[in-house]
Structures are given as C-alpha cells and as structure tokens.
Write a structure and sequence with these properties.
The structure holds two protein chains of two kinds. Chain A is mainly beta. Chain A contains no helices and eleven strands. In chain A, strands 2, 4, 5, 6, 9, 10 and 11 form a seven-stranded mixed β-sheet that branches. The termini of chain A are far apart. Chain B is mostly beta strands. Chain B is about 0% helix and about 60% strand. Chain B contains no helices and eleven strands. Chain B has strands at about 5, 10-15, 20-25, 30-35, 45-50, 55-60, 60-65, 70-75, 85-95, 100-105, 105-110. In chain B, strands 2, 4, 5, 9, 10 and 11 form a six-stranded mixed β-sheet that branches. A five-stranded antiparallel β-sheet of chain B has the order 1-3-8-7-6, with no helix packed on it. Classes of the chains: A mainly beta, B mainly beta. The interface of A and B includes residues 100 and 107 of A.
C-alpha cells in the first residue's frame, strides 16, 4: 500500500455519462496530481493541485475537471464520456509542489467507456 | 515544449546480460526521475536524480544524469526475470512559475530465463 488511495478501482460506464474519480493523498502530502494512461498516448499529465489550489495544467480536456478539497482529497470529474476516454487514471501525491523524492502513485482507476 | 523520449521502446534480453535504457529530453530540467510499472499495477519510484553527474544505484539498476547532454541512462546489470516491467523516466521543469512533470514513452523490458 503506497498510502495514496484511489476509488473506485474499476468503473464501466456508457458514452455520454459522467463519472467522478476520487483520490486521497498520502498522509502529509499537499500536492495531488492526476495522470491518464492509455495504450496509444502513454502517461499524460492532466492537472495538479497544491493545498487546494490549481497549480499546473497539462493535457486536460474541457470535459474534464478536478478539485482538491480542504481535507486534501481530490476528485477528477469526467463528463460527456467518449470511447477514447477509456484508460487507467492515476493519482499521485507529494509533500510539496516540487518533489525531491518523486511522486507516490495510487493503484489507479481503470475506466472503461462502452 | 518539453519532450521526453526513451529508447528502446521494447527490450527483450536474456538473464545475466547487461543493457542500458536511454532517456533524452528536449529542454533544460533540474531533476529527473525513474519509475517502474508492473503490468496493470501502479508506478513505483526508483530513482531521483537532482544534479549533473548524479549517479544512483539500487541492486542491479544504476541511473545516471548528464544535464548538459540532456540524457539519463538506466543501466541493468546481470538481468534477472524479476526486473521484467515497464520503466519510465520523467523530467521536471519549471515554466512560468508552474512545475510540470513529463513522462517518457516507457521501455517495456522482458527478461527471458
């Protein structure tokens, strides 16, 4: 157990639907990062939050949004889902917004859009 | 735009052999990371390289960083089956006050018994 908790582990949903992925960072970590991993795109950085504020944005679609709550857990909302959104979504955390020790990754949420 | 390329993308090697995975990146960076991912699993941090000339070793893996060449290597010594996994490098860069962390394409390593 890495200390980063992601739920659910698996999610199957239909096109056009909306889902929410949840991440609880490792205790003491203030930064949360979201990544999408698919076979054709590799590991893509989506967005980072640090202590409740958006800190950096990557290749995140407008249909996707995220937030970090006062208790530091984060949610990634995916809406108007398309087949191409099927992927493994990872959350990672670190103690600061510049990690000297690398990130700690959660076990991921596998999203399948049918 | 920061680009990170790894080669080879796939590597099949015999147990006991040595090999090197290369990670090239396109712009200056102040730190580089190596991760391991087993199939269907999460990413595990292996090394963090923070300065030019940094070398770190753990078991049969050794990572090094040459910031002038914008190149990091992950050297595998006397490979064993347990090292079979996908290895990613990731490069960090500060841009306009924000910190971005870009992963390479990954190298899928298969060690044959």
């Amino acid at each position: 157990d890495s200390g980063v908790t992601q739920t659910p582990k698996h999610l199957i949903t239909a096109t056009g639907q909306r889902v929410t992925l949840r991440c609880s960072p490792r205790s003491g970590d203030l930064s949360v990062y979201w990544y999408q991993q698919s076979l054709d795109q590799g590991l893509q950085f989506l967005i980072q939050y640090y202590n409740g504020e958006e800190r950096a944005k990557g290749n995140i679609l407008e249909r996707f949004s995220a937030q970090q709550f006062p208790d530091l857990h984060s949610e990634l909302n995916l809406s108007s889902l398309e087949l191409g959104d099927s992927a493994l979504y990872f959350c990672a955390s670190s103690s600061s917004d510049r990690s000297d020790y690398g990130y700690t990754f959660g076990s991921g949420t596998r999203l399948t859009v049918v | 735009e920061l680009k990170v390329e790894q080669n080879p993308l796939f590597l099949s090697m015999q147990e006991g052999k040595n090999y090197t995975i290369y990670c090239n990146y396109s712009t200056t960076s102040d730190r580089l990371y190596w991760y391991r991912q087993d199939p269907g699993k999460s990413l595990e941090s292996l090394f963090v390289l923070l300065s030019n000339g940094a070398v770190k070793q753990e078991g049969r893996l050794m990572a090094s960083l040459d910031t002038k060449a914008r190149l990091s290597t992950l050297h595998i010594t006397a490979a064993v089956h347990d090292l079979s996994a996908t290895y990613f490098c990731a490069v960090a860069r500060t841009t306009s006050g924000t910190y971005k962390y870009i992963f390479g394409t990954g190298t899928r390593l298969k060690v044959l018994a």
